Amino acid sequence: MSIAIKAYASNEFSLSVPFDRNIIQGLKSVSGYRWNADEKLWSFPDTQNNLDIVLKTIYENCAFENQVEDQSFIDDLKSMSSIILMEIRIRSYSGRTGKIYVQYNEDFLKYANKNADRIEQEDVTGFLNHLAVEKNAAASTLNCAMNALRFYYGKVLKKKFIFDIPRAKKDKKLPVVLSKEEVKRLIDTAHNDKHRLILSIAYSAGLRVSEIVNFKISDIDFDRKIINIKAAKGKKDRTSLLSEKIQKQILMYLKTYKPDVWLFEGAEKKNKITVRTVQKIFEHSLNECGIKKSAGIHSLRHSFATHLLEAGTDLRIIQELLGHASSKTTEIYTHVSTRIIQNVRSPLDDL
């Protein structure tokens, strides 16, 4: 039985589960549950009590017994998930991080097919090799799995060997950047005012998709012409730009759509829009306007930074607007900027 755990926000978690009457009955007993028929997801308010009920429901109905004869392994799997989620809260990590760590550690134990106290270095390297070779995982995925295993076996269980395993060397890929003309085409192609505003804000303020989803009306400061971004990546607050065009669009949007708390509401007015919905809005507009680049919603953030750099904005200011902890992260945009390259004449033109 395949259970996929996802996190769209720090105050909500979602589950994708196969059809099972016992599981569905258990999930419906959770306070504040919500079923998204389009995305086939069950969503719940992220409280300890709700997590306990959901985990209990899943583990009582998942057929782990058919996969593993050792009952102690099943108990170990249950205990590990609870411990990781508890440690995540104690250390004040994000709920999304906790769910990702649980997922990788569960996959690892199922792969190793042994109890956590019997895990050795060879089991970990074998799992990472399995992800790299059989699952064709990228370096970022391998490092994410490594972080999850280091958290549980290193920080929680204090097994020192886990820190001797090297991380995967990251691919040095440059971000996909859209030109200003392509950004305009993309926004103009969006189906309605709401979709156009979502894409416009993502680009004009350099927002992450999670920041778009968690955008509240109260985060807008019209007088100071800024956007307050609360508890972003790394639980850091920051401010970004509120362009004059965006101000006018937001005021018109508020009159038309009349949102209550979240600037971008979901299908139900009390709920915010989901990450997947925002991604689909971008993907649809990208296909409709005929842009062939392998771009995602995050490409608007990359484009924001690159276009500021090409306009002469200081790299340090761009770093602050993006919320990067290190200037080295921001420096990648110097490699995709065309400001210098465009002023260089190709030798072919002199032939």
Name the features.
351 residues, alpha+beta, 3-stranded antiparallel β-sheet, 8% strand, disordered N terminus
Sequence-ordered SSE layout with sheet pairings:
Layout: E1 4-9, E2 12-16, H1 21-27, E3 34-36, E4 41-45, H2 48-61, H3 64-67, H4 71-90, H5 95-112, H6 121-133, H7 139-156, H8 180-189, H9 193-205, H10 209-213, E5 220-221, E6 226-229, E7 238-241, H11 244-257, H12 275-288, H13 298-310, H14 315-322, H15 327-330
Antiparallel strand pairs: 1-2, 2-4, 3-4, 5-6, 6-7
Q: Any idea what the radius of gyration is?
A: 23 Å
Assembly classification: single chain
Strand order of the largest sheet: 1-2-4-3
Overall mean confidence score, pLDDT: 84
Largest sheet: 4 strands, antiparallel
- CA-based shape: globular
Instruction: Give the helix level as a range of percent.
Output: 40-55%
Distance between termini?
65 Å
In N-to-C order, the SSE pattern is EEHEEHHHHHHHHHEEEHHHHH
Proportion of residues in extended strands: 5-15%
Q: What is the number of helices?
A: 15
Which class best fits the helix and strand makeup? alpha+beta
Low-confidence stretches: 1-10, 63-69
What is the number of E strands? 7
